[in-house]
TrEMBL record:
InterPro entries: Acyl_CoA_acyltransferase, GNAT_dom, Ribosomal_N-acetyltransferase. The keyword Transmembrane does not apply. The keyword RNA-binding does not apply. Keywords: Acyltransferase, Transferase. This is GNAT family N-acetyltransferase. Residues 31-175 form the N-acetyltransferase domain. One of its GO terms (molecular function) is acyltransferase activity. Its EC number is 2.3.-.-. It comes from the Bacteria. Signal peptide: none annotated. It holds the Pfam family Acetyltransf_3.
Length: 195
């Protein structure tokens, strides 16, 4: 599959390039990114250098589709649709650079990715899953804002470079009403989400 560029009011989503290596490396020094995602820990510069060509290969294979999120040309995070089965299923994943958090950028980017993922002109998915380490409230608030329905708690289900973690799971179907619903694990009223 050829890489696709998505645009929102404030962001451009496109494949990461060699010019992004330093920004990726710097962002992935963040303890939360290392704790809550599958990036290597510790994260070395070579990991960022290897990541860029890996993303290009994965677009060719149409199994993992990753976009760099850029605000006015500055890399602010990564987002993607992963584990595309060829049967209409995929999983959304993302991380946001620490200095870009709290302004709703992630929710904005994720909405564009979900819309493209369900579009017949895009990935034509029927179901998009979301998984996160239990306790990753910021990620959960983004998924909830997009209309994902919480599906449960998965014991020791998530494997990362740091070991196994309990996980939260949610999903969104193409025809779902995307109105955010309360999630018991968040224990708070639905509020405006700042990604």
């Amino acid at each position: 599959m050829r890489p696709v560029v998505l645009r929102t009011a404030r962001l451009e989503l496109s494949v990461p390039t060699d010019a992004d290596v330093e920004a990726i490396y710097a962002a992935c020094q963040d303890a939360d990114i290392q704790r809550y995602t599958t990036v290597p820990s510790p994260y070395e510069r070579r990991h960022a250098e290897e990541f860029v060509p890996k993303v290009a290969r994965e677009w060719d294979e149409a199994v993992h589709l990753t976009w760099a999120m850029r605000e006015q040309g500055v890399l602010v995070g990564m987002i993607g649709l992963y584990r595309l089965s060829g049967s209409g299923d995929g999983e959304i994943g993302y991380w946001m650079a620490a200095e870009a958090r709290g302004r709703g950028l992630l929710t904005e980017a994720a909405r564009a990715v979900v819309d493209w993922g369900f579009s017949p002109e895009g990935a034509d998915l029927v179901r998009i899953e979301w998984h996160a380490v239990a306790g990753n409230v910021a990620s959960a608030k983004v998924a909830r804002a997009l209309g994902f329905a919480f599906e449960g708690y998965r014991r020791q289900a998530l494997v990362s470079p740091t070991g196994r973690d309990d996980g939260w799971a949610a999903a969104l179907l193409r025809d779902d009403d995307r109105t955010p619903q309360p999630w018991a694990v968040l224990g708070d009223p639905i509020a405006a989400v700042a990604g």
